[in-house]
């Protein structure tokens, strides 16, 4: 396979996981199991999960699914009032997580946070750290502007491409 030349090889690390995710996307693989000695890893692409199959394990009692009552008839509509304008969607650029892991606002619990709401940032400004498999990765802003909103809490688990910050561009 041509991808072997780009295979980072070696023990499973963050770069290897990114490589495997790229292969999964390229070849539309939805579920990948890796067994490498004592290490076992399972990767699944979100949005492609099959419907869960019913499982019957020994010792489990099987109960039939409860039926939901039919929905109540809708109430008669009241006369339409003038619609209020929909709230405007928040403006700005989103800084998204480049990886799955745990979000940290500072490099250590006793050190100041990298950015606060109102902080001025440049593309190379570190805005947070994401830890995955005991590897701490500095996350650069990638844009110039001012932090308008912090969308995650310190210590929160984050997903790939999850918005972390909203930035008002400079």
TrEMBL record:
Gene Ontology terms: cellular component: acetyl-CoA carboxylase complex
Highest taxon above the source species: Bacteria
SUPFAM superfamilies: Single hybrid motif (SSF51230)
GO molecular function, one term: acetyl-CoA carboxylase activity
Metabolic or biological pathway: Lipid metabolism; fatty acid biosynthesis
Domain Lipoyl-binding: 92-168
UniProt signal peptide: none
A GO biological process held by the record: fatty acid biosynthetic process
Keyword set, alphabetical order: Biotin, Fatty acid biosynthesis, Fatty acid metabolism, Lipid biosynthesis, Lipid metabolism
InterPro entries reported for this sequence: AcCoA_biotinCC (IPR001249), Biotin_BS (IPR001882), Biotin_Carboxyl_Carrier/Decarb (IPR050709), Biotin_lipoyl (IPR000089), Single_hybrid_motif (IPR011053)
Function: This protein is a component of the acetyl coenzyme A carboxylase complex; first, biotin carboxylase catalyzes the carboxylation of the carrier protein and then the transcarboxylase transfers the carboxyl group to form malonyl-CoA.
The protein's name: Biotin carboxyl carrier protein of acetyl-CoA carboxylase
């Amino acid at each position: 396979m041509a991808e072997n030349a780009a295979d980072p090889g070696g023990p499973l690390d963050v770069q290897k996981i990114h490589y495997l995710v790229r292969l999964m996307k390229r070849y539309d693989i939805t579920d990948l199991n890796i067994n490498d000695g004592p290490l076992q890893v399972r990767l699944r692409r979100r949005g492609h999960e099959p419907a869960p199959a019913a499982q019957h394990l020994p010792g489990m009692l099987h109960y039939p699914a409860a039926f939901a009552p039919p929905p109540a008839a809708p109430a008669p509509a009241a006369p339409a009032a003038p619609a209020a304008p929909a709230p405007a969607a928040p403006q700005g650029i989103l800084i998204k997580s480049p990886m799955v892991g745990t979000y940290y606002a500072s490099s250590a619990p006793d050190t100041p946070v990298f950015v606060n709401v109102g902080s001025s940032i440049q593309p190379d400004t570190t805005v947070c750290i994401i830890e995955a498999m005991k590897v701490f990765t500095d996350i650069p802003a990638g844009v110039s502007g001012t932090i308008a909103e912090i969308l995650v809490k310190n210590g929160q688990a984050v997903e790939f491409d999850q918005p972390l910050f909203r930035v008002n561009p400079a």
